[in-house]
Design brief:
single chain; 275 residues; mainly alpha; 12 helices; 87% helix; 0% strand
């Protein structure tokens, strides 16, 4: 089966529209509010780091300050990852479960599947880390040119691996797959023969969301800047939270649509068709 981008987009929009009220609740609680709180808590620190970057600082000193900043708020980043991870799984359950679960039931399922999800993400992160470190090792041991060439190859492989494992959250949430390795393997098999098409589809989606979100944030920022620095800061946090929530909803709808198209109709759907 060849992956159909248009059909996947239409299916994603249909799924989101059919569940828009419950999806809006989860998006608000799990994607908008946590991101808003994060931005309001640390906007001033991040703004100071950005100001330092604009002043042409010492790269090593700048890197140390950034590492120190993120190291000091590791628990906040971890909490944000847990909240958004459970929300992601809950949204995928709501979008695809034919039993029509309530928001509470979907989130309960998402919480139960969070550990397999985070296990799969850790395995993917290890693979990405090795791919990113390999070019530096080659460059240090052979030559800078060799490191650059190997880096280009590693980037291509990284994007390929990213695409192959893209459906892992959908496999975990939709199939209730509690084995992270099995979920990774199923995602790899589902994308077989369609990796390039799936990558292009997701890449175009991310570019479109980034452009629209960037323009929206810029316009809102310019308007709110007229009210002073404090209002502008709050407005940027609210805008960032909205863009974050919209991105997650669209991305998860697309993820569910890709899974449905590549996995084919479920056994339950086939039985309902012939009953």
């Amino acid at each position: 089966m060849k992956f159909d981008m248009t059909a996947a987009w239409n299916e994603a929009m249909r799924l989101i529209a059919a569940n828009r009220q419950v999806i809006a609740i989860i998006a608000g609680v799990f994607f908008f509010l946590p991101y808003l709180a994060f931005m309001l808590m640390f906007t001033s620190e991040m703004a100071s780091l950005q100001a330092m970057q604009g002043g042409d600082p010492d790269p090593s000193a700048m890197g140390e300050k950034m590492i120190g900043f993120y190291a000091s708020i590791w628990w906040v980043i971890l909490l944000l990852a847990v909240i958004q991870g459970i929300g992601m799984l809950g949204v995928l359950v709501l979008l695809t479960d034919r039993a029509r679960p309530t928001v509470g039931e979907a989130l309960k399922t998402g919480a139960k599947l969070f550990l397999p999800y985070i296990g799969a993400q850790l395995l993917i992160s290890v693979a990405f880390g090795l791919l990113l470190l390999f070019p530096f090792a080659v460059g240090a041991g052979v030559s800078v040119v060799a490191g650059v060439l190997v880096g280009i190859v590693a980037l291509v492989v990284l994007l390929y691996v990213f695409t192959k494992f893209l459906l892992t959250p959908a496999v975990i949430a939709i199939e209730r797959q509690a084995n992270p390795i099995a979920a990774l393997g199923k995602s790899w098999r589902l994308t077989k023969g369609n990796s390039l098409r799936v990558f292009l589809f997701v890449f175009l989606l991310m570019v479109a969301v980034a452009v629209v979100g960037g323009v929206f944030s810029m316009i809102v920022g310019l308007v709110l800047a007229l009210g002073g620095a404090e209002i502008a800061m709050i407005g940027q946090a609210v805008t960032g939270g909205l863009v974050n929530a919209v991105f997650y909803v669209i991305f998860l709808g697309v993820l569910a649509a890709i899974y449905r198209q590549l996995a084919g109709p479920s056994a339950e759907a086939v039985r309902e068709t012939f009953d």
